[in-house]
Design brief:
Elements (H helix, E strand, L loop, with lengths): L2 H38 L6 H33 L2 H22 L18 H20 L10 H20 L9 E2 L2 E2 L1 H28 L2 H20 L8 H26 L1
Antiparallel strand pairs: 1-2
Amino acid sequence: MDFTGARKAISAVRGRYSHIFLAFAISIVVLVSVILLNDFLPLSDKITIFRICNRTLEILLIIVSFSIFLISYFSYSQNKNNHVLIAGFTFLTGCIFYWSIIINLSAGFITSESHDSPVVSFLVWIIISLVNGISFSILLTVKPNNEKTIKRGYLFLGVAAIVILCCLLLQMPFIRPEQLMDDNGLTNTSAILTAVASLLYAYSFIRSLRKYGENRDVVYKALTIAFMLMFFSEVSLFFMMRTNDLNTVLSQLFLAVAYTLVFYALYVHGIQ
């Protein structure tokens, strides 16, 4: 048997995927550490601190999301990449939702968070995750057709339609806090929604990893790690006991790092 050739092949795979393996290992360690920390330390009185952390991370997510949108929007005339443009508008949609959480709209869309209302933050997080997951899954599955130019005005209308539909959804009388969270954490409904978002991110991760294996492009490498972190962001929500606790802060932190990697990937793509 050619052990030398096998060692070289293993070494090549290790070198190519080392950053992805490292990101996976760090994510697992951090997630398990936070879960154990929640079990052994009394953190129930730190809701105010966790809320401040979540709002701060959401401001960061707004900045990064809007930056991603700007890159995709203004670079479209040069690269004509329809997938990048649609991804940018996807992040614009999430940016609007995060912005609405921060300013606490009073028109019935989002009410002021008096203590720990899951309707205020958690449901909006789930909507963002589902929109992102569906969009990324489609973009990574459908072959791009860059010969056709997308009218950006239609995408703005699409974003407006999604936001308005979600506004109407959140005003429906059947959307009640007790349907999303109880004293034990997530209910069956919220757990199913979180699981769907997790599966969408996992699918996006697999598709991106496959594309990275085919072309070894640093853009897909960054996107692969980003989708992995988005997946862990959803996984951490399964262990939350309230809207603002250490697990939700970790979820937002995973997401902030993932968004930063997407920004980096699109920036590199623009340079290329």
